[in-house]
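Notes continue from the previous slide.

Worked example: a multi-chain complex. Inputs as given:
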Amino acid sequence: MIVAKKKPVEEIIEEVKNYEKILVVGCNECVTVCEAGGKKEVAVLASALRMYFMNQGKDIRLDEVTLERQCDHEYLEEIRNIIDQYDAVISLACGVGVQFMAEKYFSTPILPGVDTCFMGAAEERGVWSERCQGCGHCILARTGGICPVSRCAKRLFNGPCGGSTKGHCEIDKDLVCGWQLIIDRLKELGRLEDYEIIAPIKDWSTERAGGPRKVVREDVRQ
Amino acid sequence: MKTNTPSKLEKILKAGHMAVTSECGPPRGSDPEAITKKAEMIKNHVDAINITDNQTSVTRLCSLAACIRLKLMGLEPVLQMVVRDRNRIALQSDILGAASFDIYNILCLSGDHQQFGDNPQGQNVFDIDSMQLIQMVRLMRDEGKFLGGDDIERPPRMFVGAAANPFADPFEIRVPRLAKKIAAGAEFIQTQCIYNLDKFELWLKQARDRGLHERVFILAGVTPFKSAGMAKYMKNRVPGMDVPDEVVKRMSGVPKEKQAEEGIKICVESIQRLKEVEGVSGFHIMAIEWEEKVPEIVERAGLYPRPSVED
């Protein structure tokens, strides 16, 4: 999933303090699962904002809605007939949702309510960690199913570096060395000899470096 | 004797001499004397001088410019190059820049993570890794090609080195990793500072079992401790460093004013022991901000005078 974390309320207040009719929009997908921007978080943020405006002696309108997704036209359309009633929207979706809504509702300020962090997994309740950076060409078949791009601090294709200590990364004792994981897994799979195959230089043009990306599937296009 | 480059370091190693290299860290400023003074202190006692490349990610005068300073003094620089700060365009460009000054040695490194330095909020590059940098320099030198496939006019002629840390984890891949660097094209190796000699010898034995010592020149890295405090710091705070308790104890066991001498003594003893180990082709003496001690270490270790080789 796309993992996000809630922005501090003070930061959101700074952006919305001059508006009077605000809509807070949650998203029922990834940000609900990672407990940053679902219905529950919408309600929490909305009450914090109401409290703030009340303390300021300001009478404002603040409504809540949570959409199935904010990265699809279909669901974003559900607020088309109400959006003009507001002078700002706080979207608790990931950066994709915020932008997609802003494209659709061109004349309404759409403000982010979360910080979008990474694509990751829920290790345990309340702990999410990164697994993928969307580099556009997956090499997990070669690395024992562990990604050196997202799990090595230097994204080394031929790691580990000399800073790997007792399974941990040189930058943080609490961070697992991605290459230790790769080696452990290769060993488990009986493929440790693959370690000595030199990984070729990566073509980063399928990654961020190649500019904003697009996937076009003619077979499913209408 | 067939050499691949005009490198003096290569000639010395291929002639069968024990090589001695050392290193100078460039200054945090633009005073050229900071480099030339350090180089003057050690130039008669070493065969080549590494210039570090923004080591520990702290911004310094660039390695290339400092190497040019050494070259202008008639000395033999080893250009250290990390892949942290430059993409493949900049790396190739700097290699050509170095080649234009006839810098004949390069050490290919990944580089410490920027978090350790003075710009922890900066971006890192890691477009290619150190293994791939070795391959790239060999491609440029041996085939006269850019990574993109075009021909290079007057290709670089560089003796290609890499680092090895026998003490990092997991230990079981440390020899395979050396083999990989040799396969990538490394011709000489400078190791991490060695304090745990037993472990180093075990690593080297495993390398010898695979015949790797016949395919690459291994220069054992040594760093003298200035104080017991430095020994403790290296043990506890520097990632990938293995300082056994007995070494720390030995440093702490002498009075403060004699600790520097004890550090030199340990360093000299290490060299004397490792000189006898098959597969050690020389020493890389990293006297961190203590360059003035390099001549004494070299002399006491019986590595002086340095051999001369024809240009």
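Summary box: Residues 93 and 210 of chain B are 36 Å apart (CA to CA). Chain B has a mean pLDDT of 97.
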